[in-house]
Amino acid sequence: MASQHKIYFLSCFIAASLLANIATAQTQPIVHTIKQGETLSALAKKYSTTVGDIMRLNGMNSNSKLQIGEAVKIPTTATNIAETPKSEPAKPQSAITKQPEISATVTDVTYKVLKGQSLYGIAKQFKTTEKQIIAWNNLPNDKIRAGQTIIVGKKVLEKSTIPVTPKPQLSKPGEDKPVVAPPVTQQTTKSEELTVLNAGSAKVTTPAETKPIPAPVKEAIKTEPAAIPASAKYVESEGFFANYFNHKDRNLTTAAGDASIFKTTSGWTDKKYYVLMNDVNQGDIVRLTANNKTICAKVLGPLPDIKEDSGLLLRVSNAAAAVLGIEDAKFNVTVSY
Question: Domain named LysM: which ranges (predicted)?
């Protein structure tokens, strides 16, 4: 009889212990580490609980946001204790590596218009269209002026919203590294003089076909004299420099020979024509005759010392060649100076 009582009390003790363990297990929350793309509703479905219970257990509100690597407590239920695999222990906050959150900001790319430039040429230079530049700048038409700053593109700047703390670098005692200032970028301003784009052009192109080439060579001559009205004699037919040439001088030197073309941005609208020629002073005005037409041009300097210029008398700007009706890579010309 006594042994039966012992067995009864022992059975009750074991049953009570099991119930206590089950109750303790039910009160211990499951710890889940947030992964990319997970949401509260997905967690609630996964662990057979509700979004509200998860929020209450973690002290969340409507403004709370889940962070990758964050440890979230999941309330235990009879279902998720049996079905949910044992979760990984939560990592210490210092050991969590957060994925950077990237935000993008769009900023304007601006450009200051230089003298003689057209909207078409600038659009080509920045690989966009005239229509797009007009829209960006709310321009009434395609007219622009020298010195005007316009938007020529858009740049996307990306930045992380989570600050990245670099690993501290310990320097040796007494070691003092010098502070190196960032290099200064010098911005050059193009003068109103002509820019020679390509001294080896083989064909005359219209203004729409002229493409800027990197690293232009600037003209090293003095500023142009005051402009002459377009109605003045010779200017309409022979260009801007026509009235600076002495048409009545009978002692002019005349030479004839082969000529070729170089590309420029000048001359298409301002009628400023230029030549590259040896044995003539830089800045002198010469008169060219070819294809039964005549123009006046300013000497930029000598011909480049390159193989392609061997045997040439001069090179003439593509705008001037267009006025003379020249389309060949090489043609005959007569020059007076």
Answer: 30-74, 109-152
Close Cβ partners of 15 (under 8 Å, ≥ 6 residues apart): none
What's the pLDDT tens digit per position in 83-115?
Answer: 555 444 555 544 444 444 444 566 789 999 999
| pLDDT of amino acid 24 | 47
Task: Kindly state the tokens that stand for 74.
Answer: 């999941």
CA-closest candidate to residue 128, choices 136, 117, 139: 136
Distance of alpha carbon 121 from alpha carbon 119, whole angstroms:
6
Q: How many CA atoms lie within 13 A of 333 on its CB side?
A: 30
Task: Classify burial at 6, counting beta carbons within 10 Å of its beta carbon; exposed 0-12, middle 13-18, buried 19 or more.
Answer: exposed
User: What is the rounded CA–CA span in Å between residue 145 and residue 113?
Assistant: 7
Going along 145-292, which residue ranges are E strands?
A: 149-160, 195-198, 217-218, 254-264, 274-277, 285-290
Task: Report helix, strand or coil for 331.
Answer: strand
In order of their start, the domains of the chain are 22-95 (3.10.350.10), 102-160 (3.10.350.10), 195-336 (2.40.40.10)
pTM comes to 0.36
User: Other C-beta atoms within 10 Å of 35: how many?
Assistant: 10
